[in-house]
Amino acid sequence: VLTQSPGTLSLSPGDRATLSCRTSQSVSTTYIAWYQQRPGQAPRLLIYGASNRATGIPDRFSGSGSGTDFTLTITRLEPEDFAVYYCQHSKTFGQGTKVDIK
Amino acid sequence: EVQLVESGGGLTQPGGSLRLSCAASGFTFSAFSMNWIRQAPGKGLEWISYISTTGSTIYYADSVKGRFNISRDNAKSSMVLEMNNLRDDDTAIYYCAKGIVARGDHWGQGILVTVSS
């Protein structure tokens, strides 16, 4: 089971966003991924292997964590970053965190 | 540029069947494993099936096992999801995605499947 928190994060452009993903038991970082989904669009891979940025992803996105606790950090929110973010471990997705404009 | 284009969705009744296709371009299709991932309206993501490069390894989520069949044709750079005995809760946008087991490195735009009487 993957639990993402918070459910919604209300922030302003330029703010730092910290999204949490917790697994029910300790897992390898190999199969931890993060996705961004903008309204009406398909998801886009941001991070794989817990901390590796996918091709073309800006360096304001970073992933970290180990064991049961993983984090996606967006250092300075751009307007296009307001979206829903999903974490994934192997075949299971979290329920998503919506980052919306405060 | 990687492109994945789904087709074959639409409306069907409970118990019906549909065949989804995914046409791939912009990469060497035969060198990459593929997945189907779906999203019910207003809900989160659900991985449903994986196929290896040669088709020799296939996985299904429990929710579709025994009803859905995944296959691929490397000569045509395409993948198919045959869906049988469809239920109301199969209503979703279905995405094909290039990547290792359950991971979507690149996604298609998705195709809507609606199961309703």
Total beta strand runs of chain B? 11
Mean pLDDT of chain A: 97
Gyration radius of chain A, to the nearest Å?
A: 12 Å
Write down the oligomeric state.
heterodimer
Our measurement of the CA-to-CA distance between the termini of chain B, rounded to an integer number of angstroms, reads: 40 Å
Strand segment tally of chain A = 10
User: If interface size is counted as residues with C-beta under 8 Å from the partner's C-beta, which chains form the largest one?
Assistant: A-B, 18 and 19 residues
Q: How many helical elements of chain A? A: 0
Radius of gyration of chain B: 13 Å
Secondary-structure element order of chain B, as H and E?
A: EEEEEEEEEEE
Structural description of this entry:
The complex is a heterodimer of chains A (102) and B (117). Chain A is an all-beta fold. Chain A has no helices and ten strands. In chain A, a hairpin with a 2-residue loop joins β8 and β9 (92-93). The model of chain A has no long low-confidence stretch (mean pLDDT 97). Chain B has strands at 3-7, 10-12, 18-25, 34-39, 45-51, 58-60, 68-73, 78-83, 92-98, 106-107, 111-115. Chain B starts with a strand and ends with a strand. In chain B, the strands form two sheets. In chain B, strands 2, 4, 5, 6, 9, 10 and 11 form a seven-stranded mixed β-sheet that branches. A four-stranded antiparallel β-sheet of chain B has the order 1-3-8-7, with no helix packed on it. The chains are: A mainly beta (102), B mainly beta (117). Chain A binds chain B through residues 31, 33, 35, 42-45, 48, 54, 86, 88, 90-96, and chain B through 37, 44-47, 59, 61, 95, 99, 101-110.
Secondary-structure blueprint:
The complex is a heterodimer of chains A (102) and B (117).
Chain A lengths: L1 E4 L2 E4 L5 E11 L4 E6 L6 E5 L3 E2 L7 E14 L9 E6 L2 E2 L3 E5 L1
Parallel strand pairs in A: 2-10
Antiparallel strand pairs in A: 1-3, 3-7, 4-5, 4-8, 5-6, 8-9, 8-10
Chain B lengths: L2 E5 L2 E3 L5 E8 L8 E6 L5 E7 L6 E3 L7 E6 L4 E6 L8 E7 L7 E2 L3 E5 L2
Parallel strand pairs in B: 2-11
Antiparallel strand pairs in B: 1-3, 3-8, 4-5, 4-9, 5-6, 7-8, 9-10, 9-11
